């Protein structure tokens, strides 16, 4: 059966992988030049424990389940997940009541080992927290990942199992005949389809409209962030949340996988026509600082590496919208996947297959006997024990050639990333972490451009930063 998945974010990537597990002939269509460049690229990267969401919602059902499934994802797809644990801190008795409510919700949602800690326990775990803290809800199963790592790994594994990936291709229409999906039409051509999975993130409403399926409006809710250098990594070990409000989980302090500290996000609703607005604002960043100081008064903002923004795909119905269309047979919406969509994604993929495709659409699933669930990531030599890397370099001196000194990324890794599909500077950055360190590409971008041009057999002037017309070299200063 021919399945077309629209969107290679974390949701489309994991759904595509699951489809190959059952032998579907899968095409993944993505408008950007690489995987995971939509909502999945810019978020807090937290694998939430699952106590936030109201029991009975899909978000609640799939979050704790997805959290647990990251164990298998991590092993099979070679994706790093660090179980840092999280603390929701309370500064008064009113906030303590909210913690108790979250604890109750978490227990109903199946979150293990939740506990309310007192001031001394909290401060012994996180000594840089505001000493006025009174209580905290501790969730040991919370963790952090790099979201794009998981999406890239899932797509690589789907491709190994027979899927096809079409990048730089934008879906512009969907052909429906006799009440069934027939074709997905793009700006480059068309793809026959018996089954269409709409995993287009912020643009999911527009895709659904193209098919004449159920309309769920989506608008962006912006979240602005400040990222601090890894030399302050010792200040915080766990993800720190304030007591949440109705609208958002608040401004967080997140220790990333590689030691940087992420502060944010804001929560600003934007009109639907601003789905591309990833700008940061003085107002937003000042708001982040103001709130962070209340959690951790001595956070050194002068250690900021960069600022950025992400956009949540919000819809009025608040829950994930994961349903077969009742108007168009074979069309499945997997949209309005706001937070905790990253955490829930592995469980969303299973739900799409088992509940929507098998149960609701009545499609018989047949296991692909040759499905291989294992994918190996790019070896980051600096993660190896020093003796091991030294041994490798002794046998093969080229393996010691470093391109990015901040994150100790070797030429080998960059070349491997290109072999696996990176064609842009951002493609290299997300796969290897070259250009993501303290110098923010100042010293290594030219080396990466040269390598990209050499390996892709093109002129340096053709290399782009990301999608669209984002060339980085304009011409020669002198011959
Ligand atoms: C500020 C912020 C913080 C968050 N923090 C967390 C967190 O800590 N933990 C957590 O669990 N979740 C978090 N989330 C939520 C999480 O990031 C999302 O739920 C998840 O990334 C959604 O993934 P997706 O695949 O649905 O969407 P996307 O990643 O946007 O993927 C959709 C893809 O479809 C493509 N596309 C769109 N239109 C077309 C078209 N016409 N043709 C072809 N391709 C198309 C896009 O380019 C995109 O790549 C956060 C979100 C934000 C914004």
**The first-level CATH class name of the largest domain:** Alpha Beta
How many domains make up the 3D coordinates? Answer: 3
Kindly name the structural category.
Answer: alpha+beta
Alpha carbon gyration radius: 23 Å
Total count of strands: 22
Strand composition percent: 15-25%
Task: Please describe the biggest sheet, giving its number of strands, its sense, and whether it closes into a barrel.
Answer: 6 strands, mixed
What is the CATH topology assignment of the largest domain? FAD/NAD(P)-binding domain
- The overall pLDDT average reads 96
Describe this protein's structure.
The relative contact order is 0.15. With 479 residues, this protein is α+β, with helices and mostly antiparallel strands. It has helices at 10-21, 58-77, 93-109, 119-125, 147-160, 204-211, 282-295, 341-360, 386-395, 411-419, 425-432, 445-456; strands spanning 2-6, 25-29, 46-47, 86-90, 115-118, 135-139, 143-144, 164-166, 171-177, 180-186, 190-192, 195-198, 219-228, 239-242, 252-255, 261-264, 268-269, 304-314, 321-324, 331-335, 402-404, 409-410. It is built from twelve helices and 22 strands. The strands form six sheets. The protein has a six-stranded mixed sheet with strand order 8-2-1-12-20-19, sandwiched between helices. Strands 13, 15, 16, 17 and 18 form a five-stranded antiparallel sheet that branches. Strands 5-6-4-14 form a four-stranded mixed sheet. The chain folds into three domains: 1-81 and 143-218 and 315-377, FAD/NAD(P)-binding domain, CATH 3.50.50.60; 82-142 and 222-311, D-Amino Acid Oxidase, Chain A, domain 2, CATH 3.30.9; 381-462, Arc Repressor Mutant, subunit A, CATH 1.10.10. Flavin-adenine dinucleotide binds next to helix 1, strand 18 and helix 8.
């Amino acid at each position: 059966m021919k399945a077309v998945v629209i969107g290679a974010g974390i949701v489309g990537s994991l759904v595509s992988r699951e489809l190959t597990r059952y032998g579907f002939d899968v095409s993944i269509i993505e408008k950007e030049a690489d995987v995971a460049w939509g909502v999945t690229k810019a978020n807090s990267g937290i694998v939430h424990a699952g106590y936030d969401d109201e029991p009975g919602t899909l978000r609640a059902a799939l979050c704790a389940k997805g959290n647990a499934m990251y164990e298998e994802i991590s092993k099979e797809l070679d994706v790093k997940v660090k179980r840092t644990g999280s603390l929701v801190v309370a500064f008064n008795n009113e906030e303590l009541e909210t913690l108790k409510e979250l604890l109750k919700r978490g227990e109903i949602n199946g979150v293990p080992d939740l506990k309310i800690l007192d001031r001394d326990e909290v401060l012994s775990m996180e000594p840089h927290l505001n000493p006025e803290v009174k209580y905290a809800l501790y969730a040991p199963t919370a963790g952090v990942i790099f979201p794009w790592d998981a999406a890239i790994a899932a797509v690589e594994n789907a491709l190994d199992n027979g899927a096809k990936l079409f990048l730089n291709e934008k879906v512009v229409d969907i052909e429906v005949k006799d009440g069934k999906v027939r074709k997905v039409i793009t700006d480059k051509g068309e793809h026959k389809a018996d089954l269409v999975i709409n995993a287009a993130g912020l643009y999911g409403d527009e895709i659904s409209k193209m098919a004449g399926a159920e309309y769920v409006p989506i608008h962006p809710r912006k979240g602005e962030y400040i990222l601090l250098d890894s030399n302050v990594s010792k200040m915080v070990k766990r993800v720190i949340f304030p007591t949440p409000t109705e609208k958002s989980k608040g401004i967080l302090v997140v220790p990333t996988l590689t030691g940087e500290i992420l502060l944010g996000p804001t929560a600003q609703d934007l009109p639907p026509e601003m789905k591309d607005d990833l700008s940061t604002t003085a107002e937003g960043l000042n708001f982040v600082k103001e709130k962070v100081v209340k959690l951790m008064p001595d956070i050194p903002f002068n250690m900021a590496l960069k600022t950025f923004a992400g956009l949540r795909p919000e819809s009025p119905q608040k829950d994930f919208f994961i349903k077969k269309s009742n108007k168009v047979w074979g069309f499945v919406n997997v949209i309005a996947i706001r937070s905790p969509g990253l955490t829930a994604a592995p469980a969303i993929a299973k739900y799409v297959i088992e509940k929507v495709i098998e149960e609701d659409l009545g499609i018989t699933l047949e296991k692909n006997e040759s499905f291989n669930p294992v994918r190996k990531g790019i070896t980051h030599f600096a993660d190896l024990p020093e003796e091991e890397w030294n041994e490798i370099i002794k046998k093969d001196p080229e393996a010691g050639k470093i391109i990015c000194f901040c994150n100790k990324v070797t030429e080998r890794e960059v070349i491997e990333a290109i072999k696996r599909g990176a064609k842009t500077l951002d493609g290299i950055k997300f796969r290897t972490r070259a250009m993501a360190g303290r110098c923010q590409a100042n010293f290594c971008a030219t080396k990466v451009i040269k390598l990209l041009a050499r390996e892709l057999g093109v002129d340096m002037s053709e290399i782009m930063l990301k999608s669209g017309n984002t060339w980085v070299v304009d011409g020669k200063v002198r011959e």
